Amino acid sequence: MPSPTTLAALRTFVAERDWDQFHSPENLAKSISIEAAEMLELYQWGQAPDQERVEEELADVLIYCIHLANRLDLDIDGIILSKLETTRAKYPVELAKGRMVKYTELAENSEP
Amino acid sequence: MPSPTTLAALRTFVAERDWDQFHSPENLAKSISIEAAEMLELYQWGQAPDQERVEEELADVLIYCIHLANRLDLDIDGIILSKLETTRAKYPVELAKGRMVKYTELAENSEP
Amino acid sequence: MPSPTTLAALRTFVAERDWDQFHSPENLAKSISIEAAEMLELYQWGQAPDQERVEEELADVLIYCIHLANRLDLDIDGIILSKLETTRAKYPVELAKGRMVKYTELAENSEP
Amino acid sequence: MPSPTTLAALRTFVAERDWDQFHSPENLAKSISIEAAEMLELYQWGQAPDQERVEEELADVLIYCIHLANRLDLDIDGIILSKLETTRAKYPVELAKGRMVKYTELAENSEP
């Protein structure tokens, strides 16, 4: 992930503009936070946001995530599946089902 | 994007735990911002962060982005390519090459 | 704001540790975002958070805001009152009362 | 903190517009994160931002922090000084001087 076409399009976009010089991991980490907050702003007062705006802001977050993955040569599917494995272990179905509490509290909060 | 395998794994993870009830778009938007900040924290003081931590935090951001896309039935490649089209138009190569200024200032700042 | 005592305590804390070298405006701006997200995390799933945790996280956001104001020699009451003036003009009581819509939409959305 | 005048001005601003209904702690926590990211955006690409913009964005973060403190009846100086006490204990001068590492790593990283 993303599709080879999407990845290629993003790499070309950056290369054509000679923007690699600005895409330090730190700058990209800032950009991801900034775009994430722009998406959150669509839900700031609990309103139902415009679908198109959500699509644009979510795309912005994803685009900077992909730029960072490209910059660090990370395999996106690989890091997602690896993290999912960790989370699965922290939130076993029998304890976490229907409950959203931090894994550190799962055990103590679970009924016998 | 992501690969059908990754998408399926994420859907199963949520379904098994009956967590759809917690995954309102607003809650997921908050989660994306929270995870983005955890990644930014790795760069808080300009240090070079541990590669594994970066992979984990980037994966967290991507995972919540995918949960949101799933929830809203968005095609991830579609919204990325569509947003990229818009950005291409705002940042034409001849004006944006090697310069990182907001598109609204590109024209006025460009040399004749 | 804050009280001279609080301001002095924060300046001394930084000076004693020779941390001014780390407190660039950019680093402090990152820290404010990071701490703000830690507070948001307390409300991530709509739960009622622990009061003490909220106090600690809100304090962290305020502390970095004050460090930044100190670094840039800003008068905190001054910038707040000045911004409030701007916001008052953008959200006149007669249009904004009981409605939370962006000022750009206040006029068009208002009833005759 | 802030000065009684500033506090009163902020309370009046909200009361006049009947906005308490929108100022749930969760909404205010979102707003603090959103405004913090708008300030971070001024430093997104490492540029030196316009001083006036920084003052406005920092004021926005502080204003929402004060709204939240008002909503939760928190004494701002009190929570700051209390948090500073905790941080002082975590970062003793002899270990933390001139070093910016997480307190959990201070001991192990310190020279004998």
Features:
mainly alpha; 6 helices; homotetramer; 112 residues; 0% strand
Account of the protein in words:
The structure is a homotetramer of 112-residue chains. The radius of gyration of chain A is 18 Å and the shape is globular. The first copy, chain A, contains 6 helices and no strands. With 112 residues, chain A is an all-alpha fold. In chain A, α2 runs antiparallel to α3 (51-71). The A-C interface holds A 30, 33, 37, 45, 47, 100 and C 30, 33, 37, 45, 47, 100.
Could you write a compact summary of the structure shown?
By secondary structure, chain A is mostly helical.
**Could you tell me the number of beta strands of chain A?**
0
Helix content of chain A: 55-70%
Largest sheet of chain A: none
Q: What is the succession of H and E elements of chain A?
A: HHHHHH
Structural class of chain A: mainly alpha
* Arithmetic mean pLDDT of chain A: 92
Largest interface: A-B, 60 and 60 residues
How widely separated are the two ends of chain A? 41 Å
Number of helical elements of chain A: 6
